[in-house]
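Lecture 7 notes: from sequence to structure.

We start with a single chain of 510 residues. Read the sequence below before looking at the structure.
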Amino acid sequence: MYVLVLLCSTLMARTNQASFSSPQLVLDKLVEATGASAFPPIEIEITKSTNYVARYLATSSIIQIEQKALTICKSFGKDSLTVLAFIIGHELAHAQRASIANDKPTSYLAWDRGTPTDHATEQAADVQGVFCAYLAGYKKYYELLPQLLDAVYRDYGLTDARLANYPPQYERKQSAKVVIEKVEQLVQVYEAATYLSAIGQYELAARSLEYVSKHYLGRELYNNIGVNYLLWAMNAPDQNALPYLYPLEIDWDTRLKKPLAPGAKDSDDWKSLLSKADGNLRKAIGLDADYLPAEINLLCAWGMMGYWEKALGRYQKNKLVKKAKTSLEQDHLQLAFALANTYSASHEQTAKAIWEQLATESISQQVRNQATYNLKILKGESCTLPAPFECVKPFPTDIQVDGARLHRPPFSGSQHWEVVLCDSPITRLYVTRADNSTLLHFEKNGKNQLCLQRIPCSHPFNKMESMMKGRQSEVLSTPTGFFMVCDPVVFLVNENEEMVVEWCKYHVFN
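Now the structure, written as tokens:
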């Protein structure tokens, strides 16, 4: 699915090969991870003071970092940029959440003592900063964050100090423990949401991502929430409200086999889901006005809401065609634009011309299939779905890992925690760490919904063997690889398409 975007942490190797001489490079990577280009540009300034480690100056949009702090980070060797990312990420979180009162500077060292923020605000900045660093590829937070705090307190001479203007070391380390636990929860929930989207569990995916949004701002996050709300509406249990295929769909077989029921668009549930999609897609665009995936999805949302004329106006006013960076982006935009032109007979010729071109010239088989299908619908011709795909698994998966039977939760393991994803309906996630896997058990209103078992691996991937037999298998693309769905298993393949780095078994309860 092109327009559902996941930022994974597989950039780590490239990230830590960068020169340590440029903290600005680290900041740029963090900003890129959030996609928050709508904020005023922030610059890094190195100072010789020894009072605050790092701070954000709201009046000038500058993050100041002390030379002494850089020396501490450099002492971590190959992990130097990772610990620096934690510090910069903390101050960036303050900047993006506009949490600074009276334009007074923050202080990474003083934290909540004598600064314009309180304990909860500083801890939230730690969580957002470390999670953002994880998404940018700096992921060794579990071991390095406590070590960073030890080094800061040691080199700033505060190990045994009891000063009014600085929190004691034990207090910061206790807070760091809470931060690490919260970030671990966010990582599990965020990454599980992509698996949920890949297997068509759009409600659980939306609930999961909304939980993450309480602690983190990011354009991809809001875009993905919006996409899952759209797919949730499109795949209502009993009926199909839409005759055409949309660029945000990956598996349309199930939806199109349901009876066509245009009247479903008048239901309160339909309107509510699309309204939530609209709001989240606008948030994504608010963070980055040039973020085309969210624009494409917003055009689709407005079309599904019946606002085709409004969608056409946005396409033209915002000159969206100039924002496409690749031919595939251009094709998806044209698919959405063609759909917007079907709202009246006077515009159908435009849609027809676009779909005819895409059906023969697009580099994407999925785009060609969608354009061909939509063209036949537009012409009133009978349509048949492509033949069901033959999914060839890269390796056998009929094995039991860590003794887990997914239809029989709860599970045994060394670590357990519970996350309340949503209060209405009450949606809970139970995470269990076992020896060779991580197990996730979702409940709604006390009833089992789904279980996932994530299993890390390193297995060679033969693309020709696994994907070129029959129709291409269901694939959810991400910037760092793709998920291949072979019900009831999902394979995560790396960006070079040469290695399966994780596979996931799942069980959906009826």
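Confidence is low (pLDDT under 50) at residues 6-19, 468-472. Keep this in mind for problem set 3.
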